[in-house]
Design a protein that fits this description.
10 helices, globular, 243 residues, mainly alpha
């Protein structure tokens, strides 16, 4: 596919500098590791496991909503985006390439968490649906992050905006903690957030929660709707050329 052939070279070029510095991965893992430790100490191993499951979703969405916008604005600030604009590629391959580079950036941490889960009893056969959830979550965060980055020109501002969006999508909704801890009267409100549905799906496939088949389909429908919406947003509203 032509789009992927154009996107992957961009991804590799942009991912290599960060992959060569493990300190970045340590920085990314501090907040999830802190939640895991606090939840384990306060609620026992089961609640700590819930935080670990939520960390998978956090890594996937933050690769797009936090890391990607800062990369995009940095490329524009250094005039590197002009090189891509002048090339034959369009906004979709460019968005995918930069997004894949951020996925490669967090991939070691995702693999580490999945390995810990497998070593503590998760059947390997459960991994494919979990990876599918993480892929769609990354896609949602990346397309939203790319669009936001094309509207924010100041490198100082994009850091504040992207980090705020990341916090709103991962710390407040039931991502690190299970949906069952939210009062039933407002659970429907939490389920309007894509990361809530992603975390719920991961917990369902791991076996941490049991729900009706309709709830599983609903969570997938919400994620699919957000993915389609943000892909359309990139294709129609993102600013590819400088105004």
């Amino acid at each position: 596919m032509r789009v992927l052939r154009q996107a992957f070279p961009i991804a590799i070029m942009l991912a290599l500098p960060t992959l060569r510095h493990p300190l970045w991965h340590l920085t990314l893992s501090i907040i999830p590791a802190s939640y895991f430790l606090i939840f384990t100490l306060m609620g026992g191993p089961e609640l700590g496991r819930q935080a670990l499951l939520g960390a998978l979703v956090v890594f996937a969405v933050n690769a797009g909503i936090v890391s990607l916008p800062q990369l995009i604005v940095g490329l524009r600030y250094r005039r590197m985006q002009e090189m891509f604009v002048a090339s034959p590629i369009g906004p979709v391959p460019y968005a995918l390439g930069t997004a894949i580079s951020r996925l490669l950036y967090v991939l070691p941490l995702i693999v580490l968490v999945l390995a810990l889960l497998v070593l503590t009893g998760l059947p390997v056969g459960k991994l494919p649906p979990i990876l599918a959830v993480l892929f769609v979550t990354w896609l949602i965060g990346s397309m939203l992050g790319f669009t936001v980055a094309t509207y924010v020109r100041n490198p100082m501002h994009i850091s504040a905006v992207s980090n705020l969006l990341g916090l709103l999508l991962t710390l407040i909704p039931p991502v690190y903690y299970p949906l069952s801890l939210v009062p039933k009267s407002v659970q429907w409100l939490a389920l309007l957030v894509p990361t809530t549905n992603a975390a719920q799906l991961v917990r369902i496939y791991v076996g941490a929660v049991r729900v009706k088949a309709g709830s599983l389909a609903l969570s997938w429908a919400v994620l699919g709707a957000y993915a389609a919406l943000f892909l359309l947003l990139v294709a129609t509203r993102a600013r590819w050329h400088e105004p």
